[in-house]
Amino acid sequence: MSDLVIETSGLRKEFTGRRGTRVAVNDLDLAVPRGGVHGFLGPNGSGKTTTIRMLLGLARPTAGTMSLFGTPVPQRLPEVIGRVGAVVESPKFSPTFSARQNLRLLAGSVGVERGVVDDALVRVGLADRADDRFKSYSLGMKQRLAIAATLLKSPDLLILDEPTNGLDPAGIREIRELIRGLGEAGVTVLLSSHILAEVQQVCTSATIIGNGRMLASGLVEDLLGSTSYRLRVGDPAAAATALERAGMTVRTDVDSLDVITDEPADRITRVLADAGLYLSELTPVRADLETIFLELTADDRMGVTPMTEEVR
C-alpha cells in the first residue's frame, strides 16, 4: 500500500485561446502523505484549482501522470473516486429544504443509508440546526453542510478548495476546527488556500506553488526552518564573537542581536556565560508560514500577468 494518497509527476495543463496558449500548471510534482492535513498553497491564479480539477477528472492534463491511493487517474478513476470527497465549488442545496432533508436526498442518490446523515451532521456541528431551512444558514454553516455531504460516504481523502473564502472570523474558526478534527480522526485532507495564518494552525505538511510549479514542499515545521533568537546583552560585540565561534549565525541590530541556530536557548546562555556575558533579554523569533509564502511567491505578485479565473 502506497504511503502517498496523492501523487503527481510532471503534471502540466495548458489552455489555448484567442490570445495563445497559457500554462496553468507547469510540470508539477505533488506528493500528499497519508493522514493529517496537507496545505496546498499558492496565490490566486497559481494553478491550485486547475490541479484539483484534474485529480477529480473534471479537467484533462496536457502532460504528466497522476495517482490517487497508488492508482493511476484518470484512467482508473472509477476504482478510487468512492474514497474521495471534495468541495470544489459553492454547495448546491435546495434552499427551502432543511439540512437533514437535503442530506437525506443526497444519501438516497448515492445509495447510502439514511442513518449516516445524522452522523455526518454531528461531525460538522450542525445537529442542533439540522431541521432549519438551508436558506437560513450563514455562509459558514453552508460550508459545513457541504463538508457533511462529502462525509456521507466516509471518504479516506477530503479535498477542500478555499473553504474559508468569504467567511467572517467566527466562520473561519469553525471550519478550521472542523478540518483539524477530521485530520485527527484519520481522514487525509488536502486543503487548498491562500490564508496562511489559518493553514499554519491546521496543516501538518504543505506544498507551496507559484505560476503552476512547485516552490517548496514538506512538513510545516521544516518549511519554517530554524528558530532565531533576539537577545540583548551588555557587550553585543563580544557576545557576537562568542556565539559565532560556537557556530551560530549572528546579525547585529540597532540595540540587539539576532541569532540563527538550531541549538536550544540554553546553549546560547551557556556560551555567553562561559564568556562572562549575561543576558538581559532572550526571545525566540520564528518565521511564520506567511513570510515563507511571500518570499517564495514574489514573482507571482510582481510583474506577472494574472491568469484568468478559469486557471486558478
Can you offer a commentary on this structure?
It is built from 12 helices and 14 strands. It has helices at 48-55, 77-80, 99-109, 115-123, 139-151, 169-184, 196-202, 220-224, 236-245, 265-274, 289-296, 298-301, and strands at 4-17, 20-33, 37-41, 63-68, 71-73, 84-87, 157-161, 188-193, 205-210, 213-219, 228-233, 249-252, 257-260, 279-285. The strands form 3 sheets. It has a 6-stranded mixed beta sheet, sandwiched between helices. Strands 2-1-4-5 form a 4-stranded antiparallel beta sheet. A hairpin with a 4-residue loop joins strand 12 and strand 13. Helix 4 crosses helix 5, helix 5 runs parallel beside helix 6 and helix 6 (169-184) packs parallel to helix 7. The longest helix is centred in the middle third of the chain and has 16 residues, at 169-184. The protein is globular, with a radius of gyration of 24 Å.
Outline of this structure?
This protein has 12 helices and 14 strands. It is an alpha/beta fold and 312 residues long.
CATH architecture title of the largest domain? 3-Layer(aba) Sandwich
Distance between the termini: 32 Å
Mean pLDDT: 87
Structural class: alpha/beta
General shape:
globular
Examine the coordinates and then state which fold CATH places here, giving the name of the CATH topology of the largest domain: Rossmann fold
- CATH homologous superfamily of the largest domain? P-loop containing nucleotide triphosphate hydrolases
How much strand content do the residues show? 25-35%
Q: Main beta sheet, described?
A: 6 strands, mixed
